[in-house]
Amino acid sequence: MKNLLKYSLVALSLTVAANAAEKIVVGATPVPHAEILEVAKPILAKDGFTLEIKEFNDYSTPNLATEDGDLDANYFQHLPYLEEFNKNKGTHLVKTAGIHLEPMGVYSKKIKDIKELKDGSTVAIPNDPTNESRALDVLATAGLIKLNDNPLKTPLDITENPKKLKFEEIESAQVPRTLDDVTIAVINTNYALNANLNPTKDALVLESKDSPYTNYIVVKAGNENSPKIKALDKAVTSPEVKKFIEEKYKGAIIPSF
């Protein structure tokens, strides 16, 4: 009877402790963001927080869900995208901790070297303003095109196109699926990894490591100093997370802290 009472009290204590843990709900794209957040889970648990990760495969829904309060935070985007989203959607989202950089890359199933690119080739690029501009910058750095000085560029901002490249503007998550149809595609690293592409091995051209496109934790303005967000920021910039990023992605994803 004493043992039964003892075990019942232990079970009750565990239940109370579990219920006492404050939940943090974070929206993220699957790779690498959700994978990185998984490493932060046990760190947050030690501080009394339960991390719930909700996965999304687009860049709009998690921002709207954060604005509406359905998510405490999200983790998938860089600052230029966030600023453009706030401007276009009237949202009030702010960045907190900077976690990692995903160098954008040029991929192909048709050629093995960017020097093999023929005149009139078709190029797939993301269609959202910031990632489209970023993709064009990658192509310009590779010497394929020249651009004007507009801050957000589209194919209309190409001033020189010696190879007469043709551009297809595709939703970011769908760009990897175009590889069977186009000659080259400029793909965000998270979607490249999701398509089993290794940026350091498979990319014909890879964005410079001094790129400004760090991926941040993002919250609704006013929540950035809440205890749960402070705990989240601390966990995702921990030595454990940094080691995981370096060992797991081997240079395809670069810690920003």
Automatic annotation (TrEMBL):
The keyword Lipoprotein applies. InterPro entries: Lipoprotein_NlpA. Its main location: membrane. It is found in: Membrane. It comes from the Bacteria. Keywords: Lipoprotein, Membrane, Palmitate, Signal. Belongs to the NlpA lipoprotein family. This is NLPA lipoprotein. It comes from Campylobacter rectus RM3267.
